[in-house]
Amino acid sequence: MPVKSQLRSAEPETPRSKQAEKMRYLRTLICGDKHERAARQQGATVIAGVDEVGRGALFGPVVAAAVILPEKTRIRGVRDSKQLLPEERERLDAIIRKRAISVAIGFADAATIDAINIRRASHQAMLAAIAQLFPQPDFLLIDAERLDTPCLQKAIIYGDSISISIAAASIVAKVYRDAWMCRYHEEYPQYGLASHKGYGTEEHLRALAEHGPCPLHRATYEPVHRVIELRGSC
In the predicted model, is pLDDT for residue 234 greater than 70? Predict the structure, then answer.
């Protein structure tokens, strides 16, 4: 597929006011185990929450986590990772890993994202995480996605804000990816990865324009592709 047919804009396209309105709405949602209980009522015994992070970043991998929590788990403060401060995410990550039956990570790198597109790469990362769980789940709760797997599953809109299993996966994936980006910062300090974690901030876009992309940037994302074309024409 030609690169231009895959181009993805830096997110979000949504105006800031809309984003702020969405975040206010998400803060009103209650994160609990309603969906986990419903799955058990259908006969499920091993339920995994699945989520990914890094879909909108310009640099590095998309990372997915899958988490199996014991029945009736309560962890105060667990919610969508985007609504938590970094130190709170790290604190909750440690609790989740301690209390979970199983936790697993999967990822797809920038080259894979460019080759097959971000949605398919995200699904690949999620399936890789699920495959590493022990025991294997018999029911999946997934944040707004359906996966190509025979396992019973439910896609939940705003799942990382209302399902404790999906929220736990969101936190684990975010903490893991952020730490990875901080390690990449040591290798590529010119981009400021430790501060923005590869997303399309003004700082990152300025660094891209000045230094050009590195091999770990997503060449099919529009801001990166634009710099590649400009530098090529020069």
Answer: no
The pLDDT of residue 24 is: 85
Buried b or exposed e, range 135-170, using 16+ CB within 10 angstroms: eebebbbbbebebeeeeebbebebbbbbbbbbbbbb
For residue 44, give both structure tokens: 């499920």
Separation CA 45–CA 106 (nearest Å)? 23
Determine how many CB atoms are found less than 10 A away from the CB of residue 176. Answer: 19
Q: Name the residue range of residue 164's domain.
A: 31-177
Classify residue 154 by its DSSP letter.
E
3-52 pLDDT per residue, tens: 444 576 544 445 677 878 888 888 889 999 999 999 999 999 999 999 99
For helices 202-211 and 222-233, angle between their N-to-C axes, nearest 10 degrees: 20
Q: Are 19 and 83 in contact (CB under 8 A)?
A: no
Query: Under DSSP, is residue 109 helix (H, G, I), strand (E, B) or coil?
Result: coil
| DSSP letter assigned to residue 77 | T
Is residue 5 in some structural domain? no
Residue 159 placed within a domain: yes
Q: Which two tokens stand for residue 230?
A: 């400009």
Q: Domain tally for the chain? A: 1
Domain assignment present for residue 132? The answer is yes
Say which CATH number the domain at 67 has: 3.30.420.10
